[in-house]
Amino acid sequence: MFGAGQGYGNIYPETTTGRVLTIIYAFIGIPLALLSLIALGGLLSKGCLALWRFLIRASGCFSRDLQKKVEELGPDEAPPSHEESDEDDLLRFPLSFLIFITVCWVLFSAAVFLLWETEWSFGTSLYFILISFTTIGF
């Protein structure tokens, strides 16, 4: 009766009721999805930042005389708060690493759909993932 097609298939609402329900669903579902993505993005950014810090420390790029630098600041200058430090770290986080993670996630998701949908090519699966993630076809 009513299916929500996203521009990559032949299923779409044909009746007025189906179209109205699809629009209502979109008005409720898209903001909820965005809120979920914001929360998930915050968690993933903390995880990526922790991974990045681990890689920096493991590679030997971490300054060993950090305590000396803190002592040189003296009592008049307070070290930055933990919250400010996290924001600064996110600003210095390499964009190329985030792009790499995003591309890997999209390719992985497309590969999973390729396994589930045996009649799809990888290009079709990739198109489906990109259209679904960005809600372009809605």
From TrEMBL:
Q: Which domain of life is it from?
A: Eukaryota
Q: Where are the transmembrane segments?
A: 20-44, 95-114, 120-137
User: What main location does UniProt list?
Assistant: membrane
Gene Ontology cellular-component annotations? plasma membrane
> What does the entry give for GO biological process?
stabilization of membrane potential
Which keywords does this chain's UniProt record carry? Ion channel, Ion transport, Membrane, Transmembrane, Transmembrane helix, Transport
Give every Potassium channel domain span.
7-43, 101-138
GO-annotated molecular function: outward rectifier potassium channel activity; potassium ion leak channel activity
Localization, UniProt: Membrane
Membrane-topology annotation of the record? Multi-pass membrane protein
**Which InterPro entries does the UniProt record give?**
2pore_dom_K_chnl, K_chnl_dom
The record ties this protein, via PANTHER family, to: POTASSIUM CHANNEL, SUBFAMILY K, TWIK FAMILY OF POTASSIUM CHANNELS PROTEIN 18
Q: Which family does it belong to?
A: Belongs to the two pore domain potassium channel (TC 1.A.1.8) family.
Protein name (record): Potassium channel domain-containing protein
Organism annotation = Acrobeloides nanus
